Amino acid sequence: MSRGKKTVERVMQLMNRPENIRNIGIVAHIDHGKTTLSDNLLSGAGIISEDLAGKACWMDSDEEEQARGITIDASNVSMVHEYNGKEYLINMIDTPGHVDFGGDVTRAMRAVDGAVVLVDAVEGTMPQTETVLRQALKERVKPVLFINKVDRLINELQVDEMEMQIRLGKVIDKVNKLIKGMNEEMYNNGWKLDAAGGTVAFGSALYNWAISVPYMKKSGISFKEVYQHCKDGDMKALAKKSPLCEVVLDMVVSFLPNPKEAQPRRVGVIWHGDIESPEGKGMISCDPGAPSCLMVTDISFDPHAGEVATGRLFSGKLSRGDEMYVMGSAKKVNRLQQVGIFMGPTRVEVPELFAGNIAAVTGLKDAIVGSTVSSLMEMTPFESLEHYSEPVVTVAVEAKNMKDLPKLVEVLRQVAKEDPTLRVNINEETGEHLISGMGELHLEIVTGRIKRDKGVEIITSEPIVVYRETITQELTDPVEGKSPNRHNRFYFTLHPLPGHVVDMIKSHEISMNQESLERRDMMTKAGFDKEEAKSVKDIYATNIFLDMTKGIQYLNETMELIIDGIHEALDGGPLADEPVQNMLIKLVDVKLHEDAIHRGPAQVIPAVRSAIKGGILLANDSLLEPMQKLHITVPQDHMGSATSQIQSRRGQVFDMTSEGDTVTVVGKAPVAELFGFAGDVRSATEGRAMWNSEFAGFEIVPAGSAKEIVLQIRKRKGLKEEMPKPADYLA
Fold it and tell me: Looking only at Cα atoms, what is the longest distance across the chain?
């Protein structure tokens, strides 16, 4: 019997024992060694051979991943580990480290209960380490730490034993500082990382060895021995005495929670339904006999089976032929065709799958990433998956041959379903379609896959930056919107939303999924008065709409159309047809025709849309541009070149730290100025710079360049090539 087949049989035997399951994610900054670590864990579990471990990059199954040497897609694998005479099922997700694919990390964190955070012993914690930790803690995912590439400290930096321990201690302190800063309550409740307590391991994924304090006690190997083996370059003997897979998986089993321990803590954070309902009780106790509740965290396309939805099953069980409902999709039945688990690139069918596992199912044709799927026709959906960054770079895509146009539209819809961090805008009339992504690399990969996997030849434009619009002044005199037939009038005031309220919307402390009482309490806490707090009718992106009117006849039946009109105005602001954000809209008065036929969609929507757009211009509409925070590490004599690279791009430097003979320059610059930055910084520093970037939000475009940028965007979009005026909307 093959090793893989044997593993599958053992996995199936453990699936219905939640106490023996660990769902974990491997997270880290790019190039810190996640995929190499995953390989070693797989070889220890008997899925791949020891000789291939660290070289196979088995979890990077896509040819693009292998060619570039980076992880692009999160990939799942189930394996069995024996610890203290018991067998444990470990469902593991290897996640990408590149900032452009951070959405995969966000989604993976919803599926797991624990995370192995990897940090390079030489580089220490990096910006992406901080980001993945924040994502994990937000989802109440418990971290343990693996400090990788310890051999580099000894062999490259030539540190002695004492210095090595000091350096490793600094890494642990830095990660603990991050955890404490992000969630002090969890930090104090046992999430502080502690080498002596066993929640930290050290080692080298490339050479297949690791060590932790509990393993030292168990095996009798000492820190001195580890140091000597590294010094002598005798890694093979060290890997035999202290194998990485055993040390890390022992740590996972001992210190990361099983689904029964994790779900009571996690469910309240990611689901705002009634805890006393059958599904609420079922999820908290991880009950296989309760209604089935699945959260879809990934959708991939299998050429033979079609769409495969991967997700975490919080309660109930799944088997072939089950009838499921996708929340928010017209209560249509979706029948499961196959139920299985992923073993890296291959999917293995199983007869049934129980609560607490990560499932891979086919037949959920209405599901998208983030969907809540249940055996119940009605249930409160899970909290939506929000990635900390936003799509900031766009390319226009068109089919090379006109005959491929229908196929391209279909492919783009598929791509948007598979990757929710992409925004796809399909214009069937012009045949030009826009794809917005996290960065140049993200879009390069997506467009490459459209050509390679989907077989559609496409032409792509140069990358374009995505902007936003917002108001900077209050508009307290109501702006009037008249319907085309003049029988209906709507009066709005507009106000900038304070930053703390925007943050609360982004972190879902205020959302339309909440019970109205809970939302009212959060709004008053945010500084709204009682009347405003109970008048929320809609939250769209980071905009809030309040109905402040009293006792207006027919308003209730018109409200849906008013909200549609507001959405249309916010989807494309008046300045440059870019999305509007951070605005409070108040409806203060309405005059409606008594006859329903005279207040239909063709009357209400244009009236509301033009009032909001005209009002935005009166409230000093400003353009916001996306910013990137930059971290550049260079030898000291190249520091000037690195800072000038930031400053010459309308950027600013706000911190410099030196360690030894290297300097880390921290600054930020607009995304629009950063095209080609990688090549320029390399040549300016003779290839000695190591740099990375992270999304730093949107900032108002300087007054000097705003008009020019607006006119360029209007020209590109085929809008009137002059600055818009309020009178264009308010007749």
Answer: 90
